[in-house]
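The step that takes the researchers longest sounds almost clerical: writing a folded protein down as plain text. Below is the pair of lines this work produces for a single protein:

——
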Amino acid sequence: MRMERWLTLLLACAALAFAGCDDAAGGSGGFFGDDDNEPNAAADAGAWGGAGGAGGEGGNWGGEGEGEGEGEGEGEGEGPGMPEPPQGNTNVNLGGAQDIGYFRRLLADGIVPTSEDIDAAGFFAEHHTPLPQPDCGEQVCLQAMLGVMANLINGNNCTLLQIGLNSPLVADPALRPPLSLTVVVDVSGSMRADGKLDFVRQGLGQMINALNDDDQIAIVKYSSDAQLLLPMTTLRGRRNELHGVVDRLVPEGATNIYDGLETGYLEAMAHYDSGRQNRVILLSDGQATSGITDDDRIRGLSSRYNSEGVGLTTVGLGTDFNFDLMRGLAEQGDGNYYFVEHAAAVEEVFAEELSYFTVPVAFDVELEMAPGSDYRMVRAYGSRMWADDGVGGGGLSVPSVFLAHRVAHDDVGEGGTRRGGGSALLIELMPEVDPVREPGAARVAVVDLRFREPGTDRIVEQQVRVTYPEEPQVLLRQGFFDNAIVEKSFVMLNIYVGISLALDRFHFERDGEGAVGMLQQLIDAVADYEDSANDGMGDVDMQLDIELMEQVIDVLLRNGARDPELPEEEDPWPAD
C-alpha cells in the first residue's frame, strides 16, 4: 500500500446493499430472522431494467447489468478550456467509522469480542471491490449490482443489491490542496502503558515527514487541562522543531477531552482557510475523567465547529478508550475513526490515512434507495448514517466524500494492514410473499444519487433501477450475479454477519460449540470461493478474512468453547 500512489482528488461514497433474505420455501427469515417492520413499497411507474451504471430518470433500460441513460445536471456547467482529466476507476470513501482495529486488538489479547465491537463499515473498508467502469459522464458515478443466492450461513435465499460510487478521476498527490491540521494529543498518565505514547510519537513523526512543505500544523496536548504547544505553522523549514515538540510529549495527569477538543478547534478556526483542508485530529486512550465529562456535551461542542467547516478525525489507543464517543465524533465530523492496534498499524494510520486528506469529489451527497413492488427492505449494513424513510426505503446524507486509496485486493501493508478500501452500504431486502405483479423480471429497487459538484456547485442527479430476471422467489442453485464484483461483496457480507452471529451465539446463547461450528462452515465456503476468485489466482482479502475467522475460533476455544465435528460439505460455494 504505497502512500505515494493514492491520496487526493475527487470522489463519492461507496455504498453496498444487501437485499432480500427469505428461506427456500418462500417464507420470511434472513440472517437475523424476520423483521418487525414490513413497509409496502409502491411500484414505480417508470421503465425497469437491469442493474448497472448511472442512468437518467425516465431513460430506456437495457438487459442484465446494463442500465442506460445519463445523469441530469442543473446549474453552471464546467468552464471551457479545462484539460481532460486522466481516466481511471477509483472507489469512494464515505467517511465515518472505518476501522476494526479495536476488534483485532481484543482478539490479540485473548478476549472474545461482542458483535458490537466489529464495525460493519470498518470491516467492509478492508476489502477492495472494484466497481464497473465509471462511464456516466460525471466525476462521480452511481453503480448498482445484483446478486441472488443461498447465503453461506443458514442457506436462506438472499438477494444482494450492491450500491456504490466511483470516479473516472485518478488520484494524484500533486493535486492535493494544502492542509491545515490541528493535532490534539492525549498525554494523560494512562498513555504511559503499553507503549501508547510511543505509538503517538512514532506516528506523528512519520506524518510530519510525509506532509508537504506548504501544509500547516498545530499541536495541542491535554491531560487535566489543555495547552497549545505549537501554534499553526507551515512545515517548510520547521520540521526539526516539530519533531522536537513531539519527542518531548510525556504522560501526566487526567483526561480532559472537552478542554483538549475546544483548544484544538479554537486554533483551527483562528487559522481557517477555505482554500485548505481544515481538520482536527483527536488522539485518546481513555474515558473523559476531568473537566466536562458528559459525552453528549463533548459531541455538541464538536458539532458546532464541524458545522463551521472544520472536520474531525479520531484515533483510539489501548482497549480502555471511549469507543462510542470516538466513533461518534468522527462520524458527525466528516472524518474517519481509527484504532492503532499494533506497531504495524502506526504507519498505515498516520502516514497513509491521516497525513493525506483528499479533495472532496462531491458535496452534500444524498443517496436514496426505494425497494421495488416485489421486495421490501429489511435493514442496511455499513453506515450508521443510514436512516429509514418511513415509507419502505431509506437513505443517507454525507457532507462530502473522498477517493479511497487502496487499489487492489493484494494492496496490503506490513502486518496485513488493509485500511482504505472504500465504503460499503449493504441493504438487506426480502421478496414480498405473493406480490401482485405483472409477468416478467422482478423489480428489485430504485437507487437515486444527488450531489453538489466541487468548483461549480452544479447539482448532479443520477438514478439506477435494478431487476432480477427470475420470479422474486426463485433461487438458482448456482446463484445469479451481475458480475464477479458482486460475488465478492456477497461473500464479504456473509463473513461479517457470520462473525457477528457466532459472537452473539457465544455470549447470549452460551453455545460456544455452535459458534465454532458456524465459523468453520463459513471458512469452508469462503475458501471454496477464494480458490476460483480472480480467474483462479485467488483473493488476498478473502485469505486474510479466513485468518481472521480462524483467530476468532482460537479465542472462542481458549475461552471455553468446544470444537464440534462437522461433516465435510460437498460444494460449499456452488457458484464456482
Notes: Residues 484-508 form the longest helix (25 residues).
